[in-house]
Amino acid sequence: MKIFQPSWVHHDEKSIFSIDIHPSGERFATGGQGCDSGRVVIWNMAPVLNEQAETNKSIPRILCQMDNHLACVNCVRWSGNGLMLASGGDDKLVMIWKKTISGSGGIGAFGGGGKSVEHWRCISTLRGHAGDVLDLAWSPQDRWMASCSVDNTIIIWDAQQFPKIVHVLKGHTGLVKGVTWDPVGKFIASQSDDRSLKVWKTTDWSCFKTITEPFEECGGTTHILRLSWSPDGQYLVSAHAMNGGGPTAQIIERDGWKCDKDFVGHRKAVTCVRFHNSILKRSAPKTNKLQQYCCLAVGARDRSLSIWLTALQRPLVVIHDLFQDSILDLSWSCDGYTLLACSGDGHIACLQFTAQELGTPLSEEDKNILYQRMYGKNANIDLTAQAEKEMIVENSDFLNVLKSNPVPPTLIPQQQQHPQHGATKDEIKSSQAVAQMPMVIQSSSLTTPTPILKQIETKTADGKRRITPMFIPLNDDNGIASNATTNMPTSIEFGSKSSESMAPVETKQLASEEPNIPLTAEPTSKLDNRLKRIAKVPPQKAEPLASTEQTTGSSSNQPASNQKLVERTRPPTYSTGKATVIQGNSFKAFGEVRVQVQNNSVKTAYGTLGRVVGLVVNAQRVEKKIWETVVGSPVVCFAVGAKCAVVCSQDHTIRMVDIKTGTLVFPVLSLTSPAVQSVFSSNSKLAAVVTESGILRIWNVVEKSVLLSINCAEVMSGSFVTILHVSDQGMPFIVLSNGSSYSYCRKLDSWMLINSSDPVVRHGLIGNKANAPVRNIKAYPLSTIQSYGNFSGPKTNSFAEIHSASWQTSAAIAFIENQIKICEMITSPAELKYWYSMLGFQLALNGSEEKIRQVLDDLLGATHSLDTRMGDDNDPSVLGISKHVFMEDVLNHLKMQTKWQRIYTEYLDQLKFLKERDGRDKPLME
Question: Are strands 877-878 and 881-882 parallel, antiparallel or unpaired?
């Protein structure tokens, strides 16, 4: 970490009340007092961060100076897209600035300052407040802008139509000194001198929650109260609060709006808090597990600054006496490694961090997935719809819609969770007091704390107890801890519950200690379900699917214990796509029969032979040889089914033998190159091999005939097959070394694309990942094959591209529709139902009325559709499932959005009519 205090950034020795970094990171703005007016200055960031740029006189320091405000400027804030700058001051005005090519931009003549390098023009002056404007905040996607004032109100401005006022929020009885938006656009929060914090709904601008308890002891001692919302939306951190007579920054949880934690350690009132814009991630130094956490900067009247990571128990850094006066504002750069702070003494400070200290920001795609999982909506929030008044509910089915968030469908049905015992407290008592921390997190409530997974109890010299619970991180792994409880934190934990306040220590240090973080991952907890990412499994290291996936759905006429296929071979790694001779003794078993292969075991005058032996294992686990045969060429791969085994040799030959007798089922076959993969279908009726050159053969073992003969070379493109599977219906699936996967459709005589680097496929798979990779090839073949892809997330961090709602919606729907068509071709009814449900979920969130009607008309049936162009499709079912079942799934998702209530009612009535008619038309049972 580096600290800079550029002396040339000043307002002619007058106070600087606000600072904000431009989204591009190339400039920053300050607001405060000018010589005889309010002043806004736009500065070049390069001379602050780069010493050479600072000494280079050809590089400007001031880009533009605007002295248009008639009185002191209290706040400056850039819009999210960086096109506009808002400033508010004691003249009761809010000014919106926009860069122009030339002309009347910043007026350097007012108060001096020389010629402006950039020209910024006031495009709108917002008049509405009756007193000083103290704080400003742009909503997500710059749909609105909020300003708060000493007139006790918050005004919501329409950022698309300045100076239009959307609403005036009234309810505070004191000066409103801070305002902040929920990152998903559902709430706006404000803090006032009336010793309250209010949360307002953006749907109807009503007061949703008023919080007073942490602020009852507070006095009006601060010029501003800049509160901040965490980037995941789960925590709201206030400015000045009190606990036991000491100043704190209150932590308010979104879940239940609980107020039992706060940041303590500052000696005077906290004036401003500012969250880092991104959720951060890094590998824990000791466990090497991926952590995801938030970062927060806290400034106070005691002139000290503290930086907190939620992955640490202690502050990352505490800096005392940074200025000669109160810290009044903070701002993080979008890249996440620069923090600017300003003070009433007229100076600023720049803190520059490294990725090793803070971590790396979560990509916008992963952040979008997080929002989808937590709130049922992505980052492309439809604020325009929210700006309208709540719709009148015309259908009783929609009465409870606003009380619940849309929940995406799940592929695998959720099994009933067994209740687990509460976590025990592992109390570690130490006779020595722990090293004093510069700051601690403590509870502002003296109620009995809820069970914590692990805590450390220590005693100080005066005999007081201090309890420090372990921080529970957001894990990225898929392991389930044995001691996980149902009483898990539901979001990123900030701190502990402790009734003791620790005295701050005058030290400047980085927290070098990492807490011993236990792994926790409860399936029912919002904590890990929300942020856990799918572990990418490289196809090169994946074992053939048929070796472990034949436990599900096998033939019902055999005992269940005989269905499991056990493989004990040394797992081959086809690093070059070439057939590799099996070394040593290797065997595979199906039920009680084991087939064992030993190459080069018999030496003859004609050459070396390999042995293939059939063994049976009885109840006492005693092996008995039931047959033996020899092969003249080393075996490179083999597979075992319920009745037969396929043995592939290096000389391109293939032998199909009966596992009970060892006799040949087929004559010895020969292909153009040796096989690298061999499998049976889960019902053991089909056997398949694929060779080095890409020849794929599927045989019907029962009928002793070939089912499919095709060359994979047309899709291999220089890669090779790493995974082969054949379904009971004879549908082959291959995964290539480049991560792509395909399935061959005999009906279409073509390869179907299952997974590839195609942007639509990548976006669709990343956006629809489950909590863990699906590995059930029998029930969910499509999802299982797609889980073996090794493609990374988006290659761009472009704000415009990531937040383009149009392409994301169309891409998601196109991907889901393709998934539906694949499921139809590969005969996967369970997945077909899931993807129709997912289509309904996406359409309900982001779809258009035209698209929704198109889908529902198709499911309703061609004879009832208004569009008769596709009237030749009269099949009422798909894969044996009625289309009306899929239609009900889609309607259930539409029911979660009030805006679709008329479409829902219209199609539900038609569906009920058809069901009643079909019931009447059915013949009576005799």
Answer: antiparallel
Confidence of residue 273 (pLDDT cuts 50, 70, 90): very high
Of 679, 814, 824, the residue nearest 745 (C-alpha): 824
Q: Which residues pair with 690 in a beta bridge?
A: 677, 696
Report the 10 Å Cβ neighbour count for 412: 15
Q: What counts of helices (H) and strands (E) characterise the chain?
A: 15, 55
Determine how many CB atoms are found less than 10 A away from the CB of residue 769: 18
- Residue found under tokens 């092969």: 631
Q: Which pLDDT score is estimated for 554? A: 38
Q: Please report how the helices 805-826 and 829-846 are oriented relative to each other, as an axis angle in degrees rounded to 10.
A: 160
In sequence order, what are the beta bridge partners of 85?
A: 78, 97
* Amino acid letter, 266: H
pLDDT at res. 466: 55
Cα–Cα–Cα angle for 257, 258, 259, rounded to 5 degrees: 120
Amino acid at 555: S
Q: What is the CA radius of gyration of the chain?
A: 33
pLDDT tens figures, 547-561: 333 333 334 344 444
- Give dist(CA 10, CA 254) in Å, integer: 39
CA–CA distance, 175 with 53 (Å, rounded to integer) = 42
842 contact partners, CB below 8 Å, separation of at least 6: 809, 812, 813, 816
Q: Tokens 């499998």 — which residue?
A: 679
| Contact (Cβ atoms closer than 8 angstroms) between residue 609 and residue 568 | no
Structure tokens at 304: 């000290």
Distance, in Å, from the CA atom of 191 to the CA atom of 384, rounded to the nearest integer, reads 26
What's the pLDDT tens digit per position in 240-258? Answer: 888 888 888 989 998 889 8
Task: Read off the tokens for 88.
Answer: 């508010």
Q: For 327, left (φ over 0), alpha (ψ -120 to 50), or beta?
A: beta
CA distances 653 to 18, 124, 663, 673, 709, Å, are: 78, 81, 16, 9, 16
| Distance, C-alpha 142 to centroid of its chain | 23
User: Taking the CB of residue 740, how many other CB atoms lie within 10 A of it?
Assistant: 23
Find the helix or strand (DSSP H, E) in which 785 lies. Answer: helix 781-786
DSSP 8-class letter at 214: G
Rounded distance between C-alpha atoms, residue 464 and residue 280, angstroms:
36
pTM for the full model? 0.49
Partners of 680 in the beta sheet? 687
First-residue to last-residue Cα distance in the chain:
85
